[in-house]
Amino acid sequence: MNLKNLICDIHKNVAIITISRPPVNPLNSDVFRELTQLINELENNEEVKVIVMTGSGEKAFVAGADVKEMATKNLVSLYQMNKKSREAFTKIESANKPIIAAINGLALGGGFELALACDLRISSDKAKFAFPEVGLGIIPGAGGTQRLQKMVGQGIAKELIYFGEMIDARKAQELQLVNKVVAHDQLMDEAIAWAQKLAEKPVVALQMAKTAINSGSNVDIESGLTIETTAFATAFASEDAKEGLSAFTEKRKPEFIGR
């Protein structure tokens, strides 16, 4: 596909998506559309096992939505933009492959929401996070009010959204918003190392683990256990499960084939 706002490089089963709208990579309708289309393509690319998402430059992962674009819209056109953002982030969250956010700088507003939609988050020690929307007279509109509270609880979510104050990477890790914080110059090496490690895992098992966790988070415990049982059975029926169990009993390294 023809990408104007994204760069996609594929190497050793890992796709690296870079949001490229320098200097701070704001999100607009075109970015949302390209993200949705690109994730769709990568889902169907058997070469790609894991996706890493980052921002261009040294300053920002994504410093929010494109406020200049938003300011020109009426309610109807803003609704359409918001719908595109929801489609893009839902596609990222539900993609059949793990997606790692490599947060290289500012993750503000929509950028924070984008990171929350990913499966795993590795942060540069220079990164900063905030939801500044309330100070602009609006609120997070691309999943922030919902995904944030599920990660940190309502109290912390309300504090971060109401006040809109910036937190650093270490505070984000303390709140379990990011999985790991590394030195800025080690960020991409660490993200790619995680991706390559995941790329060696059996595909169906990863897909079913993601399905069970994501779908189970929105239902009661009994329904969640039913989802887990179905996902477990699907993984167990895969060829890789047979290989993994055989390799364990034979005390050898498994050779997974992705089926």
From TrEMBL:
Keywords: Lyase. Belongs to the enoyl-CoA hydratase/isomerase family. Gene3D superfamilies: 2-enoyl-CoA Hydratase, Chain A, domain 1 (3.90.226.10), Lyase 2-enoyl-coa Hydratase, Chain A, domain 2 (1.10.12.10). One of its GO terms (molecular function) is hydro-lyase activity. It holds the Pfam family ECH_1. InterPro entries: ClpP/crotonase-like_dom_sf, Enoyl-CoA_hyd/isom_CS, Enoyl-CoA_hydra/iso, Enoyl-CoA_hydra_C. One of its GO terms (biological process) is fatty acid beta-oxidation. This is Enoyl-CoA hydratase. It comes from Virgibacillus pantothenticus.
